[in-house]
Amino acid sequence: MTEGAFTELRLDGVGRRFAGKDALVDLDLTIRAGEFIALLGPSGCGKSTALNCLAGLLPLTAGSIWQQGPDGERRIDTLPPEKRGFGMVFQSYALFPHMSVRRNISFGLQMRRLARAEVARRTTEAIRLVQLEEHADKLPGQLSGGQQQRVAIARAVVLEPSLVLMDEPLSNLDAKLRLEMRSEIRRLHQSLGLTTVYVTHDQEEALSLADRLVVLRQGRVQQIGTSEELHTRPANWHVADFMGFRNIVEVDATHVDGTDVVVQGEGLRLRGTATAPTAVGDRVVAAVRPEDVLVGAGTDGADGPNATPATVEVVGYQGRELAVEVRTAAGRALHLRTEQRLAPGDAVTLTVDPERLLVYPLAAGEHVPAPLVAAVP
Amino acid sequence: MSLTVERVPGEARQAQDPGLRHRLAERGIDRQLLLLVPAVLFVVLLFLYPFLYGLQLSFAPDEGGPLASYQAFFSDPYQSGTIWITLKLALPAALINVLASVPIAYRMRGSFRGKRLLTIVLVVPITLGTVLTAQGLLNYLGPAGWFNKILMTLGLIDDPVRLVNNYWGVFFSLVITGFPFAFLLILSYLSGIDPTLERAAATLGADWRQRFRHITLPLLAPGLATTFCLAFVLAFSVFPSAVLVGNPAGETRVLALAAYQAAYEQYDYSLASAIAMVMGAVELIVIGVVLLWRSRLYTGSTGGKG
Amino acid sequence: MATTVAPRARRRIVGSPSSWLIWGAVTFFLVNLAGVIGAVLVSSFGTQWFGTWFPNGFTTSWYATAWREFGLLDVVGVTLQVSLLVVVISVLIGVPAAYVLARRTFPGKKIVYFAFLLPILMPPITYGIPLATVLYKFGFAGNASGVVLANLVPSVPFVILTMTPFIEQISPSIESAARMCGATTRALFLRVLGPLLVPGMLAAAILVLVRTVGMFELTFLTAGPDSQTLVVALYYSMSAAGIRAQQAVDAMAVIYTSTMLVLLVVALRFVNPTQLVARVKETPEP
Fold first, then answer.
1. Cα(C236)–Cα(C221) distance, rounded to whole angstroms?
2. B74-295: which CATH topology?
3. Which residues from chain A sit within 8 angstroms of residue C177, using beta carbons?
4. E-assigned strands of chain C?
5. Residue A376 resides in a domain
6. pLDDT per residue over B38-89, tens digit each?
């Protein structure tokens, strides 16, 4: 490992304000060597700000960053980016347009004033690693998006950086290439023993890549956890909303027994699992994933848990499954996924396992936004 | 986490005043801003300082009170009339240059063969400047010049029309240098408007008149205002052509000329500065009015790659 | 619909009556422009020309006369010296400032931007007269250094306003990438930004050159007898008409014109014609 190798990198209350507006507030995070961490959130949530603060491209306006190395702890947020020894892959790739692939990749090595032979050896190795041997002397403008992406990655990892930062590196690629590059990135992370911080707004991408995820919203950390934890137990309804709980309904708690809760509202009466202490009469949010809503034709399953009659409205073909939008008798639209071949107008009965129906507290004055499509009269 | 923090002395010093560093970071201040220093210094020393010096000079005449130079200027119709003379030349010239450019540029946006050649030809008079244009106008529009000869040969006139050494000579010189300027600017503004906007309007049933009136013109209007301002600045500072093709003692005795004469013929630097200040003020008022109107328009993206 | 878009677009240029009107107006303008320039050109080669369509005979002797009598060798020398100095200095001062304006937001940015805009918006005479007075006070006026200083006043802002949009269109993430690769500020400017900025700097430089050679007012106000540029010498010879033969003045005008045309041809290799006019950046970002 090169200079600046660390066993642990600690972000301590890191914050960034722009002209009086908070972009990132009080980020505490400890990154262990070898980890793959994803910063996840909708656009404008502060994830790129966090990455740029970590890189040193953006000075902090609060907090500090510490690096735990073999010779003690060292403060690094006062160092300029070129002194931190991190590598970075940019969303737009940011290749130097006037330099060939080879020179792009060797640029960092030359900046380190390494011996010419060493530069050539490591550059060639990095080019082979990303399989660009035959394009080594082309300019970035002559390469496809995927190839440019490989150059950008090679340029970042050739320095054997103690930390690789990736800012939505796949967002400019088409769907097929994105999947290929995703496994490529994970493969490189493992084979080179990198430590990676990866920014994305794509929850699926983050879940499949990262060891730990940091979910941000409006500049604040919402939850830090493994993919499993985030998928099954979002910390609050905002995270649930972002992690694919498409059915989010604002209701009242009518019966509470430990974590076993009954909620009522919008013509629904449902039994679910409370994620936080809840009292009878509380305004709460019920959240469930589309794939956890089970469906029976006609009145099939009417004796199952949380049985609710509904009518199919919109059906979208998604391969083996259908993405279906149904509407309850009281006019509430719900989303579900099923392998049954349903058609608009079909009468169905929905059931949901109370274990999978999560009930979140609702902050005072907060409301779940109304569904996009209003009820057809 | 076990906190065995060993801070190196140097870093403790670096961390001395994190508050200040954080505050500077929030305001975007760092050492890179020093790159701005030479240019700012330059503007202050060579523009603002002389300007303020002139302003102070204009209030410090050799004799009389602080306002004596301004009084001398405004009480003498031969002097104060130059404001009107200058405006009478510059406003119509700028207006005509801008208005004539719009339909021509509208027809010529998009690409056609010879467009680059045409723009190059149009650039020529701008680069030649007023001095050469004046010399050419004297030859071409003079009593024995080709223009009068052609008109007489065609039998349109009997005696040569007097087109130089008066208002018209200066006016033509302003059009010759000003029109290409306005045209090229407006052409670039027009090409900056996304053509699909007009196509969208066409699919909604607008004919070309309506498309121009409701789509192109509103998007072009801020550009028109800017072009007018720049064309006006160009025409307003008319100096050499007013002397060479105009009648510098009479109908084309413009502000710049009055200021020049005060400074270099009467050696009254206070009066000269006062006239220069009046000139600046009149120009800024006109520009201010136009920009005020412009600020009420839509000035966002025009969708194009301009 | 049978017609495609392309033929319709072409028909619009030559077809309708309004098109003819517009082409007519343009042609009229160009014919007169040719007349203005041609009259000078023909006269400079004519022996005697009174009231006829063309001169009685043709000669090149006026050029020799003009060259000798107006001391054009010195004038051209001064012109070159002054313009090149102005170009180099204004690029050196302007480009770093343009970089900061393009990349950074800081308190007072609007004021700084406005201060750079003012010298371009103000009539040269307005600040030229006080400037000349100040330059005289400090002993700069009446020689080439004063002319250079005065010409820098509109040139530096011009470089800034030309370069700012050029720098803005270079993605800032390229700079960030260079920094992440370990480049210091020096290396960043020399190895990455420098090569990318060369086309823009070349364009700005050539534009300043054209403007400085053609700049009359400021040079006129600050030049002494030994520091006249071509355009000022031309003005003096014109306003002193009657002393010299008209044709010699015309010959000098042609020399000036050809200088400008050569510059123009060079300039147009690097910039597009619209840029020669102005490069106004709309609404500075807050």
1. 12
2. MetI-like fold (1.10.3720)
3. 88, 90, 94-96, 152, 155
4. none
5. no
6. 999 999 999 999 999 999 988 988 888 888 889 888 998 888 889 999 999 9
